[in-house]
Amino acid sequence: MAQTATVHLVRHGEVYNPQKVLYGRLPGFGLSDLGKQMAEGIAEYFGQRAEAGQPVHLLAASPLQRAQETIAPLAARLDLPVITEDRVLEAENAFEGLSNVKRHLRSPRYWPLLRNPFRPSWGEPYKQQVERVLQAVKDLSDRAIAEHGDGAEVVLVSHQLPIWVTRLWAEQRPLWHDPRSRECTLTSVTSLNIGPGGVESVSYAEPNKQLSKQALALPGA
User: Fold this and answer.
1) Which of 142, 159, 175, 221 satisfies CB 3.0 to 4.6 Å to 126 for a cystine?
2) Where along the chain do its domains lie?
3) Which option is the CATH number for 5-212: 3.40.50.1240, 3.40.390.30, 3.40.640.10, 3.40.50.300?
4) For 93-142, what is each residue's pLDDT tens digit?
5) DSSP labels, the chain
């Protein structure tokens, strides 16, 4: 009998970033006080699900500080180790490290980076992001099933863009998109239901919806 698993892709919490830097993969960007509240909210959300008979069996996160800090309260609550998963790292971005990116885009020196928004030309191709995230999802779901059986669940903390383009792929939608259209708020949960053929369905939840309304609109994800 075919076995299934669910991998919950969780976006990290709000980052402390007063200079509004597009931080991307840069080190040293941890959670703000609000982001830490969000991390506690995620621990409560999955903790309550576990108490209701839907336990999480594996925890994994991007190596970046904000992802590791987001999953830490959940790891403490469930008493589970965290697997560091490089394949769900933030996307590469040529504007990384800049503050006030919109202002920089008015400079001709950056215009060549905008030549192909469908790829996109300023960073890691969307297709490449999807491929690496799906590889991580498959390996983690296979491991969860092997160790815990049918219906095993995984929580994987990542970043907005890799999560969003993976969802677009799973829903058979074009990967190119308007960034303002992304349904992937801070500490939202995009759940991939995995079957014998791969991703079979997707669901979405915002456990920290009220806290997200208080978050600043900052660059980076």
Assistant:
1) 175
2) 5-212
3) 3.40.50.1240
4) 988 888 877 776 777 877 787 889 889 988 999 999 999 999 999 999 99
5) ----EEEEEEE---B--TT-B--TT-S---B-HHHHHHHHHHHHHHHHHHHTT----EEEE-SSHHHHHHHHHHHHHHT--EEE-GGGPPPPBTTTT-BSHHHHTTSGGGGGGGS-TTTTTTBS-HHHHHHHHHHHHHHHHHHHHHHH-TTEEEEEEE-HHHHHHHHHHHTT--S---GGG----TT-EEEEEEETTEEEEEEEE-TTHHHHTTS---S--
